[in-house]
Amino acid sequence: MCLNDQFFHAVSASCGDIRILRAEPMSRHTSFRTGGPAQIACPRTEESLRALLELCSRSGVRVRILGAGTNVLAPDAGMEELVICLKDGLTGLRALSGSRIEAYAGESLARTAIFAREQGLTGLEFAHGIPGSVGGGVFMNAGAYGSELSGVLESVTYLDLDGARHTVLGEQAQLGYRDSIFQHMPCVVVKAVFALQAGDKEQIDQTMRVLMARRKASQPLELPSAGSTFKRPTGHYAGALIEQAGLKGTAVGGAQVSEKHAGFLVNAGGASTADVLALIRLVQQKVFEQSGVRLEPEVRIW
Ligand SMILES: Cc1cc2nc3c(=O)[nH]c(=O)nc-3n(C[C@H](O)[C@H](O)[C@H](O)COP(=O)(O)OP(=O)(O)OC[C@H]3O[C@@H](n4cnc5c(N)ncnc54)[C@H](O)[C@@H]3O)c2cc1C
Hints:
Layout: H1 5-14, E1 18-25, E2 37-43, H2 46-59, E3 63-66, E4 72-73, E5 82-85, E6 93-96, E7 100-104, H3 109-118, E8 121-122, H4 134-140, E9 143-144, E10 147-148, E11 153-160, E12 165-169, E13 187-195, E14 197-198, H5 201-218, E15 225-228, H6 238-244, E16 251-252, E17 255-257, E18 264-267, H7 273-291, E19 300-301
Parallel strand pairs: 2-5, 3-5, 4-19
Antiparallel strand pairs: 1-2, 6-7, 7-13, 8-14, 9-10, 11-12, 11-13, 15-18, 16-17, 17-18
Helix pairs in contact: 1-2
The structure holds flavin-adenine dinucleotide (FAD).
Flavin-adenine dinucleotide binds next to strand 3, helix 4, strand 9, strand 13 and strand 15.
């Protein structure tokens, strides 16, 4: 079945609490502010998500999972798959015994870190300034300033694309550098439990402020981007290699290598996904010619 009126009637009739957005520009849902039209479904409960996945599986509808859209490049021509967006829908934060917290996939990492701080729990300060969701953060093993979610992840609950529920321990989730098992199997992260430690609220707050100030000083946060466009190559920094190749400020259409931080490709105004992809290829080619290092995109290209 294709993504027609009949399918969306079935969603409304049988999947419970789901917001539907038809022909919605992905540029409104990605931090790069690029991407063409998509059919987007935003379930507000795990039960609705499960029912939606079952319906899609039965109907032969392919899906893509979207969190906060801060690490995704969506095609200009639009999405063929149904986009299931969890950000701000599938939410919930809960303190558990033993300095642990449970966070649903659609929570922002920022709210989760603040919730931990309010509980007097340390360990998520590094995640406060990362603009993604918990689901996207676990999928990517988001990290900053020497820490990653792998360091605090106790368990993850996910649904496979038939809607069956599974829970795995942190180590089973195989989080590595910007990698996790969820990148290698079709599934939807529903929630995570983070194991933290008792700490001092003032100290936690202070650490968050210091890290945010470092971020603001070094990153072009005033322009749309997906953060660091490339993974850190072993033994190098992508930003330094790009700068050494003389590429700071280089542009293709509206996409530009940031003047402030060469590791960030930014949408300097009116960029398309095609512009960003062309700039990614140009940077890869020039850096390889200059240094022999092959840069691998960190941003997920849909
Ligand atoms: C200004 C800026 C600064 C950034 N700084 C950092 C940083 O310091 N450290 C860092 O690690 N990253 C950083 N990022 C990148 C990004 O925020 C992270 O990768 C984040 O973890 C992505 O989360 P998201 O919810 O936005 O995921 P999305 O961009 O929505 O999705 C990313 C991938 O995860 C998948 N996904 C999302 N949610 C789920 C789910 N629930 N289940 C299964 N798959 C899912 C998507 O299908 C997609 O493949 C930055 C981005 C920006 C724009």
